[in-house]
């Protein structure tokens, strides 16, 4: 069995069809084992026979849409990918806090370009794009209300088939998957 984390796009915990118990039910209905949700924002860890990740993403998304009416995207990362990301210590010396968000944006496809966040014009600082994980690593200055430019810039580069999590959430998903 392989260990995976699914990061779902467009989950709103206030929608009864998007609650954790229903999300777990869809994954269990697909035959996955050790299914567990993390927080209430569309993070699901599970074990499944080693399969092609795009096929897993497609099967999960089809089931979420058919059973719960969830049209958003499903992006999966393996335990090994998340472990490599955390082991690389991409935010060395920094702490995620209310004023400074350390973020990981998972993307489906290789970027056409890596977005630029010009210093002085943006409240976002690019750390790097990690092609092995398919993730853009950024630091967001939340003390400035103009941080809303982040998603517009990222979606211009990758489209809407992406999802962003805090680095803390990624670390928690990895911990839940076990070592």
TrEMBL record:
A family per Pfam: DUF1697
Gene3D superfamilies given in the database record: SP0830-like domains (3.30.70.1280)
Protein name per the record: DUF1697 domain-containing protein
């Amino acid at each position: 069995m392989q260990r995976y984390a699914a990061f779902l796009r467009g989950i709103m915990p206030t929608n009864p069809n998007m609650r954790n118990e229903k999300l777990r039910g869809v994954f269990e209905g697909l035959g996955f084992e050790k299914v567990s949700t993390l927080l209430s924002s569309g993070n699901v860890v599970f074990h499944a026979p080693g399969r092609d990740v795009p096929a897993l993403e497609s099967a999960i998304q089809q089931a979420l849409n058919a059973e719960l009416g969830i049209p958003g995207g499903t992006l999966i990362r393996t335990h090994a990918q998340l472990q490599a990301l955390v082991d690389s210590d991409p935010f060395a010396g920094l702490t995620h806090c209310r004023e400074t968000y350390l973020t990981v944006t998972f993307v489906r496809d290789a970027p056409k370009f890596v977005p630029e966040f010009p210093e002085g014009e943006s409240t976002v600082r690019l750390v790097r794009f990690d092609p092995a994980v398919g993730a853009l690593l950024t630091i967001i200055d939340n003390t400035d209300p103009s941080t809303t430019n982040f998603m517009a810039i990222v979606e211009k580069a990758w489209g809407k088939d992406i999802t962003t999590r805090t680095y803390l959430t990624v670390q928690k998903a990895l911990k839940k998957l076990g070592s």
